[in-house]
């Protein structure tokens, strides 16, 4: 068998392989870095199989020379995962050859350092994790990956099959617990098709975006660039924000700022915002689903409406809070939120399947399709809305990810790998929402299960796609899932969505309440 590799494919393989050696060399820079790199490169040069010629043709990773360890990691770790995904799709045997070749080179580079530093040991772990991150990516067929082989979990498979029966098109589930990892899928990836949803496919994750954004803000708090109890107006004076609104209140949904996607008044009437897929504006949203909104105009619209309550005196879920958080991040760093996300979260964790799309309607393959049903001139129509411009919700819920990346992220976050312990404790400190057994921290829900346990969570829906993300407070047990469905203006799927959350939470964590993740983000 031969593998057809494009120039971009070859570049990915070269950066991944030689970059891993460069990364090891940089992490253990004390000693003889040139000699260490040489020995590692020789080990790579002996790579066997059909990819050997690609590596042999590229003796140096010139674009990585002179970079910091963090910068190299940001390039190399995602490239390793991408390389493994590429090879697994084209020739699984070559994926094994590639993995072995890289690990041999890494081991050789490590040996040449004499006594490896803690930084080197950490890089070995990250490189190995990145190589193994594609372990579940038998994605095109929806097959259960090797990591799940031999684990008989019929209760989990039955649960997702019953979720499909309740009205969803498809579901993919990933569970990490004391029994190891289980991954499976049910339903179909596309209406009229027969293929199951990819077990590690890409999905629009809706309000899970808020947890990523809150983490980014708290990392900048840790770096001394943002004050958690500083007025948001201090950083964003152009909006005329109430000076009593602290940064903390944005992350906690206690600012009182109007939600630009609309609010439900106490008497049940709707206070509209921009056209959204729900209520009376469904067809308008469909017709304009490729329109670009800029974050500033979403905030300005929200601030033109009356505040919900005095800052700090109530709790109300508002996408506007997180668009303000995005603008705050960009103001204090001088970089886009996508660049900062890559620098501080996606790169270090090797989250190559996670995307901050801004206004791009594209979604990486593989993916399960998302649909929307609406009425036009008295006729019911169902359209594929997998491609849509997510700028209408911005950082209130625009990100794309996979169940593997969501697991890696929430596990690392709660495991203390992304911020100091004190800030993590603040993030997970519950603030009352008025919903029984369901409080909110800074970008996360803090749930109390039926058994009295605590689960940290954020779920989200994004018009035809939904994502679940649950973990124990230490990140040791996680549940992540992606769902695809036919959405509509009446939120007909909402009851099934809540039931799905409860069912999975019961199966994995022994029961609990559900997250009122807003379909608008």
UniProtKB/TrEMBL annotation:
Alphabetical keyword list: Carboxypeptidase, Hydrolase, Protease
Name the Gene Ontology molecular function terms of this record.
Answer: carboxypeptidase activity
**Beta-lactamase-related domain span:** 157-488
Source organism's superkingdom?
Bacteria
Pfam families xref list = Beta-lactamase
InterPro entries attached to this UniProt entry? AmpC-like, Beta-lactam-related, Beta-lactam/transpept-like
The molecule here is called D-alanyl-D-alanine carboxypeptidase
Which source organism?
A: Nonomuraea solani
